[in-house]
């Protein structure tokens, strides 16, 4: 099970990796726009400095044709490092690019996945991660968990070395369901992950425990 954060906000990333068991950072051009860094590659290198090589960094291409995607992938790797996962939308051209990038040994995250057959194509093309868009699929009236569950079974049955990184989240319930239906990883905005701890019962439980402790040993007297 892997938690990844879907942001390029440096403060959010610093905070998230310090507090939570975060194993990577993803983004897309819209997420980059929310921060609008002056120099994209300087910013991505700064993210790498924060997260280190032990965490994964997934960077999305802009080009729509396979040739352009491959060219951009090389530039991304040159500018950041060879460990970056290249995020490629699973279009017809995208699948061609995924095959070519994998033939070169480049790490690929297949993204913009709305449909199971799209995911199967990315899987057969050799993607390392596949990102079904949970909230967006739900908005189209389909059940994203059907896709995650079938894809997870297919990966296990055929023995693919590929992880489902469920994406596009608006709430914790979608994240929980994704794991429960077979996603190996999720990538979510930091605000969604922090909702996990927003349950007021957590603080109330701690306050009640502390009240009992202080009633025995004196107000404000902790263990140390
Ligand atoms: C992953 O990085 C995806 O691009 C992202 O989660 C999509 O999220 P959205 O549907 O909120 O735009």
From TrEMBL:
GO terms for molecular function: aldehyde-lyase activity; transferase activity. The keyword Cytoplasm applies. GO terms for biological process: carbohydrate metabolic process. It is found in: Cytoplasm. InterPro entries: Aldolase_TIM, TAL/FSA, Transaldolase_AS, TSA/FSA_arc/bac. SUPFAM superfamilies: Aldolase. Keywords: Cytoplasm, Schiff base, Transferase. Transmembrane segments: none annotated. One of its GO terms (cellular component) is cytoplasm. Coiled coil: none annotated. Its main location: cytoplasm. It comes from the Bacteria. NCBIfam families: PRK12656.1. This is Fructose-6-phosphate aldolase. It comes from Peptacetobacter hominis.
